[in-house]
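Exam prep: given the inputs below (a chain plus EPZ), describe the expected output before reading on.
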Amino acid sequence: MEAIRVEGGRAITGEVTVEGAKNSALKLMAATIMAPGVNTLTNVPNIADVHVMGKVLKRLGASIAVEDEHTLRIDTSAVDKWETPYQLVAQMRASTAVLGPLLARFGKAVVAMPGGCNIGARKIDMHILGLEALGVKFDIDHGNIHASTPNGLIGATVTLDFASVGATENLMMASVHAKGTTTIDNAAREPEIVDLANLLNEMGANIKGAGSPVIEIEGTEGPLHPVTHRTVGDRIEAGTFVAMGGLVGGPVTVRGFDPRHLGLVLKKYELMGLDIERLPDGVTVSRARPLTPTDIQTLPFPGFPTDMQAQTMCLLALAGGSCVVTENVFENRFMFASELQRMGASITIEGHHAIVHGVPGFSGAEVKAPDLRGGAALVMAGLVADGYTTVSDIHHIDRGYERFVEKLDALGAAVDRVEIPGPVDVTEL
Ligand code: EPZ
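Solution:
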């Protein structure tokens, strides 16, 4: 079984350029269903989740040519199916992002009900409620969602209970060809939402307000037209390297993203004692002072991103004092904290609060990646731990970080991928 092993104590300095955003690229790929023809997406990260979404599109009838690793030419002219199989949705919940595009193109869709994952139930009730307001009828049968539009898609005003990223995206895409105007209130404001709206408008849609809490979509007739579009830089991959540079001391320059997409994270990191120099396409981070404890609470953008919670807790676990990290977005996203305690962290979990008591240092240990970001944060902890840290279950990390080990190695870390024994065979004594 593959694992990442890191030896603590090395300085990491230099420059790293992040890829396009995973949490945009997957939706941009889904949206090409709405523009029959050859769409070219550039700056697409070469990661496992993109490969899964590629399989979903091919299963629907699309063909995909990969050029120079980060450019996908997706031809959706021959898409003639509207059903996504369970095994692909189970592998990647984001496959549900094809629901809106399939409804827009065919007026129907069959999508497997996504199961939960390590960080929470990951329901899609807000997607369903919002789409029902647009005239979609749902039947749930044997774990599959059967969606149809007997009277077509009709524009409506939808107010989301919570600024859900996925629900905002599916509603935005489904309403592109609805009759009349759709208003999404309490919409998610993430930069990835803006990137998707930009793509749809380039294809001929009429969307206003993306990035604000109120998005207005004017329904348009006929299919959208194919385009070439560059994926926005990955602010979370960037934030992960910023946190690492701040933890070890740097200076590390992280390029390939817009620092405004990490606004609150960078402000909090400065409060915690990191020195951040903002650049047009990134930041330079260093630290010369002890880490200062700072309370964090995760919220939808522009609040503190939940996808930066584990990386930030890693920093706070070594701060000179105690603070509270509150996770408001997912109901079970503190498993990273339990693994970090194996390395010597002192963290008390009380519901959706984690009380973090800073300790002088970590000791290397064998730990398991609980999810994508927690896995990256465990490797981060290993950079400063005493001795070796081995992180297993690294398929989580490969889902969202391209060449993670190579990038860290280039910054000077002592890190590599190793083979470790798999689970013990318990079929007999
Ligand atoms: C997206 O997930 C991202 N994934 C997540 O990134 C990110 O953490 C999340 O947005 C929040 O920013 C992708 O874009 C592929 P939500 P999504 O709908 O769309 C609940 C990563 O590490 N909810 O905003 O699923 C839901 O269970 C991943 O890159 C409902 O209850 O997030 C969660 O608790 C992890 N009903 C909360 O809302 C619904 O219908 C936020 O979910 C929809 C969501």
